[in-house]
Design goal:
Layout: E1 6-13, E2 28-35, E3 42-50, E4 60-61, E5 65-66, E6 73-74, E7 85-94, E8 106-109, E9 124-125, E10 136-144, E11 148-158, E12 160-165, E13 168-169, E14 174-175, E15 186-193, E16 201-210, E17 234-243, E18 246-252, E19 258-261, E20 264-268, E21 272-276, E22 295-296, E23 298-299, E24 306-309, E25 315-322, E26 325-330, E27 333-351, E28 357-363, H1 375-378, E29 392-396, E30 402-405, E31 412-420, E32 431-438, E33 444-448, H2 451-466, H3 484-497, H4 501-514, H5 537-540, H6 542-554, H7 558-575, H8 600-621, H9 625-646, E34 647-648, E35 651-652, H10 657-665, H11 674-688, H12 695-707, H13 711-719, H14 726-731, H15 754-763, E36 766-768, E37 777-780, E38 790-797, E39 800-809, E40 812-829, E41 835-837, E42 840-841, E43 848-854, E44 857-872
Parallel strand pairs: 15-24, 21-29, 37-40
Antiparallel strand pairs: 1-2, 2-6, 3-4, 3-5, 3-7, 7-8, 9-17, 9-23, 10-16, 10-19, 11-15, 11-17, 12-13, 12-16, 14-25, 17-18, 19-22, 20-21, 25-32, 26-27, 27-30, 27-31, 27-32, 28-29, 28-31, 33-38, 34-35, 36-37, 38-39, 39-40, 40-44, 41-42, 41-44, 43-44
């Protein structure tokens, strides 16, 4: 038998592996402990950090810290400034006092965190009034005087800046860099490692600028064309070249750069891109290019926002999707079907004469006549005068043989694409779909014996990714807006399925930036002004709910501390609207219900209760006891208000599924009344035979049914193939989640997406224990309901991988569970019969404590490790 070993692995800084753009002074470090024995726990750790990979701990030696923590550990060494490197490693001790070997060394680098590090670089671009113009191309030639040891480009660009060095894009596979914020408040900068691209001798840098959200000339309902920040695109850049044999050389953006225009005739975030390949500037990003016809780059004003290193991934092309079929409903009109709804664009492969103009119009839907049908998604732009295109890319050929092209500064939401202007019949390989969204590592998987559930899971993941575009959005086609309600409803599904904490952490800053001095939030974030000035608690609560979700799923207290003041301001100001313990104004509520509309006064009041509770718990966590009491009292006051104004005749509000499940989920129902209220909910669902909620209720209904022991009913709701429900969408051919039960609007919305969270946390049974955030203690409670014969899920928690996999077989019920080091789990095996592992009764199994057996279930407590439980049939 091998000797038990343990070691720390997967070292991360601010959730990322070896990041080079850290902006905070005390970045948080994490690792996971891998241990080959059950019930392993860390008793202590030591972190050392140094300026060089080989050096001693000249930056930090934490010493031995008695703690089982492996995440959210703040760097507490010597202060780090812009561009500083930090190499670090960790070792851990077990409970017997034995030390592990040191982990491999990892590293992080600081981005530019202070103005002097920008080395006097200027914001440059092409001056003139904002609006539709050819995209600026910028270039700079320079000499490097020695051998390059490390080279980094730091760049801020609004709307977008695509950087090239010596003929190549420096971040291939990315697009729409650095990203979207309220540019009056905060502007993102990114770092690129260009060590292998910069050489001794003559070099060239290039940049192409896109309008993005900075210069929105597209006219649409949300008035981004009137945003205060609006201006011509611009960028600011520093290339720092460290030489092995000389002082660091800096190349900075300034008026020594040249500026020209080329093939991108126009680009618009909603409208798309027009590209004339005949105007390409071959070699423009290489040394030696003749730029004598170019003018001098103009120095432009800095955007008002504070420059901040972006601490999360940007947008990448994650997948290339093959065209599935091409129809030809009218002469010269081709309809390409990619078989999957997604966000991004198409890549063209063409061989056509110069001047051939190919137009691609992206759509989610094809009408009866076989032509694309976009009335469901273009209505907010249709009134533009003069008319403007809508998610349309146009390519004009240069006629040199095989041409390959894809746009870079916009994106669309689509499954189908109409192509016109082709001189010859296309083949399937003429087009590829390019799926573009914020990059995430996956954190969760789910599959089961139901093909339908697997399709819903697939659709949820594609909808989540399609709606992650620097910010969480509502839909990738019609609006592309950071609707706050949609985000709060989908965040838990997002956090269990993907490592999305850095993405939400960034968007919380966007929320903070958008808050008014009086504590008002806005409906969309960022906004150029639209959707501000009114209260919509179910949407506005995204701010406290998301901050607290990061704590619940990732033990992040830093984000709670950072936003505490503004969170309090929001909740206090909303509390100022209370009348006798309830909110009485109308606002957005249980949006897009099937048939029953729950009063928004009720849902808003419940959200204020949720907010007050979050603030009370947060205050307690942060040691602010007086505030904890104050917010606790507020929660009590609202609870009493709900009781007085919304409870009557055994029911809450109008007795809708939403009203009842919210009351039960948030514990607004006195204990002795819970059974009757739950019975009323069950009756409602059984009588109707389907879900009857909008987006709010859909997050709570399945959870409450499962919590109260009726996963069988929740299963029926989700497995139903008739309208309304997720199953009906799938029957209609959905490949992403839809905006409404009727299928009359966008076909790629994420706001009904909590169903995936229910699959993972309930069907497969990896339950988050709200009292033990970060899955420190896990509730494993698989739900073998309905026709399901097996289900499995995994989740990468802060402690490591959690796995739950069950199957019903002729010989009984099998449950495989893995829980990571430093955690414990309560396992509920939901069948009768004695449970064994590897042939041994449970009282003989290492790592297991039998808590209860009988009455159709066995309850265990387990320590870390992998287990295979079996409950024999009969
Ligand atoms: C729609 C959006 C979003 C929703 C709002 C209320 O326009 O798409 O999903 O939050 O309305």
């Amino acid at each position: 038998m091998a000797t038990p070993t343990f070691r720390p692995s997967d070292l991360r800084c601010e959730y990322l592996t070896d990041p080079i753009n850290i902006g905070v002074a005390r970045p948080r470090l994490s690792w996971i402990d891998e241990a080959s024995i059950r019930s392993w726990r860390q008793s202590a750790y030591q972190i050392v950090a140094s300026k060089t990979a080989e050096g001693g701990p000249d930056l930090w030696d934490s010493g031995r810290v008695e703690s089982a923590d492996t995440s959210q550990i703040e760097y507490a060494g010597k202060p780090l400034g812009s561009r500083d490197e930090c190499f670090w490693k960790v070792r851990v001790w077990d409970e017997k006092g034995t030390a592990s070997a040191w982990s491999p060394t990892h590293h992080w680098e600081m981005g530019l965190t202070a103005e002097p590090a920008w080395h006097g670089s200027e914001w440059i671009g092409i001056e003139g009034p904002a609006g539709e113009h050819p995209a600026p191309f910028l270039r700079k030639q320079f000499d490097v005087t020695g051998h390059v040891r490390r080279a980094r480009i730091y760049v801020a660009g609004v709307g977008y800046a695509e950087i090239h060095a010596n003929g190549q894009p420096v971040a291939p596979g990315t697009e729409r860099e650095p990203g979207y914020t309220n540019f009056d408040k905060r502007v993102l900068s990114v770092s690129y490692d260009v060590t292998s691209l910069i050489k001794a001798g003559r070099n060239a840098l290039g940049a192409v600028l896109g309008t993005g959200w900075y210069d929105v000339h597209d006219k649409a309902t949300w008035n981004f064309d009137r945003a205060h920040w609006r201006g011509r695109p611009r960028m600011r850049l520093v290339l720092a070249i460290e030489l092995t044999d000389g002082p660091t050389q800096y190349i900075t953006s300034d008026t020594s750069w040249k500026a020209g225009t080329g093939p991108i005739l126009r680009d618009g975030i909603y409208t798309g891109e027009t590209y004339d390949a005949r105007k390409e500037l071959t070699g423009w990003d290489r040394p030696g290019y003749n730029d004598s016809a170019w003018s001098t780059a103009n120095k432009l004003d800095a955007p008002r926002g504070e420059l901040t290193p972006r601490a999360c991934a940007g947008v990448v092309i994650s997948e290339t999707i093959k065209a599935k079929s091409i129809a030809n409903p009218m002469p010269d009109v081709y309809i390409v079907d990619f078989g999957q709804n997604f966000s991004g664009h198409a890549r063209l492969h063409l061989n056509a004469p110069a001047g051939t103009k190919v137009t691609m119009r992206y759509s989610e839907h094809v009408g009866k006549d076989g032509m694309i049908e976009r009335s469901q998604i273009e209505q907010f732009m249709a009134t533009a005068d003069p008319p403007q295109p809508f998610q349309t890319d146009t390519y004009i050929c240069k006629g040199i043989g095989e041409e390959v092209w894809e746009q870079r500064f916009s994106y669309s939401g689509f499954r189908y694409m109409e192509v016109t202007g082709l001189p010859t019949k296309p083949s399937l390989s003429t087009f590829e779909g390019r799926f573009a969204h914020t990059a995430f590592e996956t954190a969760g998987e789910f599959s089961c014996s139901s093909e339908l559930f697997n399709r819903i899971q697939h659709a949820t993941r594609y909808a989540f990714l399609s709606n992650a575009q620097n910010i969480p959005t509502d839909c990738p086609q019609r609006e592309k807006n950071g609707w706050t309600g949609d985000a709060q409803l989908a965040a838990e599904a997002g956090l269990v399925n993907y490592r999305s904490a850095p993405f939400y952490t960034k968007w919380l800053d966007d929320l903070a930036d958008t808050q008014s001095d009086t504590g008002l939030m806005t409906l969309i974030v960022p906004t150029g002004g639209w959707g501000s000035g009114a209260r919509h608690p179910a949407w506005d609560s995204a701010y406290p709910i998301l901050a607290y979700d990061l704590y619940l799923y990732g033990k992040d207290k830093t984000v709670l501390a950072k936003h505490y003041e503004k969170l309090s301001r929001y909740v206090d100001s909303l509390a100022g609207e209370l009348k006798d313990g309830v909110l009485t104004f109308d606002s957005l509520g249980d949006w897009l219900p099937w048939s029953t509309q729950t009063p928004s006064t009720y849902t808003s009041t419940v959200y204020l209760f949720v907010d007050a509770q979050i603030m009370s718990k947060t205050a307690k966590l942060l040691g602010k006891d007086a505030d904890a009491k104050r917010f606790g009292d507020l929660a009590d006051q609202v609870k009493a208000g709900v009781e007085k104004h919304f409870y009557a005749n055994g029911t809450y509000a109008n007795g809708s599924q939403t009203a009842l499940s919210m009351a039960l989920y948030y514990d607004l129902v006195p204990t002795d009344r819970r059974p009757s209220v739950f019975a009323a909910l069950v009756k409602n669902v059984t009588d109707q035979g389907h879900i009857d909620t909008g987006i709010l209720g859909a997050k709570y209904l399945l959870r409450v049914l499962s919590q109260e022991g009726r996963s069988d009913l929740a299963y029926q709701i989700v497995a139903r193939k008739e309208q309304p429900g997720w199953g009906w969408w799938m029957e209609q051919g959905a490949t992403t989640l839809w905006e409404d039960w009727k299928g009359e609007s966008s076909l790629n919305h994420i706001m009904f997406g909590d169903v995936s969270n229910w699959f993972i946390q309930w069907i497969a049974g990896i339950g988050l224990d709200l009292e033990n955030p970060g899955f420190s203690h896990i509730d494993i409670h698989p739900q073998p309901v309905g026709d399901l014969t097996w289900a499995k899920a995994s989740h990468q928690s802060p402690h490591g991988l959690i796995l739950s996999s069950w199957r019903k077989a002729s010989d009984g019920f099998h449950l495989d569970v893995t829980i990571p080091a430093n955690t414990t789990a309560t396992v509920i095996i939901p069948v009768g019969g004695a449970v064994t592992e590897g042939g041994s009764p449970l009282d003989k199994v290492a790592g297991v404590v039998l808590v209860e057996t009988g009455a159709g279930k066995t309850i265990l407590r387990i320590g870390s490790g992998s287990y295979s439980f079996w409950s024999k049939a009969g």
